[in-house]
Design goal:
single chain; Substrate Binding Domain Of Dnak, Chain:A, Domain 2; Rossmann fold; five-stranded parallel β-sheet; 11% strand; globular
Length: 625
Amino acid sequence: MADMRSSAHQSMRTMLDKIQSDGMTNVFARFAAQGARCPFCEAGVRCSLCSNGPCRIKPGVDRGVCGIEGNAMAMRDMLMRNVLGTSTYTFHAQEVADTLRATAEGKTPFSITDETKLRMMAAKLGLDSPGDSAALAIAVADAMTDEIATHRHTPSRMVEAFAPRKRKQIWRDLGLFPGGPLNEIMRCTSSCLTNVDGDYKSLALKALRLGIACIYGAQVPLELAQDALFGTPAPHEMEVDLGVLDPAYVNILPSGHEPFVGVALIKAAHSDAVQARARAAGARGLRIIGSIETGQELIQRFPQDEVFAGFTGNWIMEEAMLATGAVDVFATDMNCAVPTLGAYGRRYGATVVPVSELVRIEDVDHTLDYRPEKAAAIADELIELAIENFKRRAGKETFVPPQRRKAIVGFSTESIIRALGGSLDPLLAAIKEGKIKGVVALVSCTTLKNGDHDAVTLEIARQLIARDILVLGMGCGAHALQLGGLASLDAQSLAGSGLRGICESWGVPPVLSFGTCTDTGRCALLVTAIADALGVDIPQLPVAVTAPQYMEQKATIDAIFAVAFGLYTHVSPIPPITGAERLVRLLTQEVEGLLGGKLAVSDDPTQAADGIEQHIVSKRAALGI
């Protein structure tokens, strides 16, 4: 049995002790119970796709029964995981398009909040811009839907509109300029069938092309359209960690990756009538509290007040959230709903409700699958379920750790430019002067594979800011940075002298909360703007990516895109490809000659930070700064 992992956060360590004393299954104990992993699986040289398997590549056996060799076996497995991530992002994008159209038709409780963003999208896509924002929203929604299904032989309009000019030519030359994500998914999935594509280089090129289709065909439009619907993120303060839960209130936690139900809940919960119903049930009121990436989408856009009361944490913390006994409804959408939520709901008196057709949980029967036209009704029913749940748990024991801290959240390309006085010039000047050596996008999940919960993420971020490298936090990694105190002004003291001075001057932390994993697309737009301002291609920039505790399939496609985009991309834990020597060489060395980006693999935070810094210093030297 493996050693028992812990957490970087005191709130989680406290809750873990409680959960274990209660005899509940939990992610930490389950990780330890798995013990040593299969060495063939960890090396990526095991396959069970067909009835001849499982096959393993080992000394004296260099091919599977079908004839596939180890490099192709490992790359095929990676490509299939990338298909899963792209599929999920694409599902989200279609949900956004449907919501945008339904909103324009007056069928949702939402409205067009940022018309400027909507018109920017329309202009980029070459759409007519009538005075009627509703008609324009429908045109943009239709363009998003068309893009998703664009034929693989038809160049993507989104890539043409939003990608850097020099990148587009390189992608065309290499056959990487994609169609829409749906057809690219079909192409890649079909290639993974037994006895179809057995060439690791071909499979790798398909993965790179899929990454480009994913970011520009799904992530970029979905985030821009969500900005149009719910507002473009702007910096503000938010309280985070499990201590934001107050048992005296009716507490509803929208969780997952999509903001729709959460936004509808925030709107509905601000009603005087809803608050009166909660008080009539014996509560002080009713609160909405963000969880996981859905919570991140909400805290980036909505200020904290008496109703929208803060943010809890990332996916590993879900069981702990329910174990506090202070959660009345846990409304979970399309991603990151752990299968034990039903058991935790029963044990600790929470009502768990899937709000996506993708999510089903053992022993949870109540579902309210999201449809745009049903958003208001779903929010009303969740509120009613929560109030009834509060009545049942009133007077029962709760256990909420006291930890809560303030974080500054809500950074976006637009808000950064506003903070800099309307242009990127101050940022570029700080980079040229060496006060900021470079910028790193930390786009990560959280995992126990390479260390304690969030510990590696926090350590790498600390090391980078101490070296005068600005960090943009996205995904569950952003949650780690917020709960760990690095997204606060207090963290300025942890930065190197150059970065610290800049952050003090601008009034920002050295780690900027940049959103969810879908904001990989938004970050690509920021990097594009920097490259355009300097007149260089992406690989020439003193910019890098780190995924210090990636976990699942959405993270792998983000990393593959970053390589195609031309960025040095650090990943940890070590991916399951180590048994494929030629594939490792391709992804960590040879691909740099084609695209300018590459994977860098290290589980040691100091070694990883050293590699990132060396890369940034080399790019600065090449630019003569």
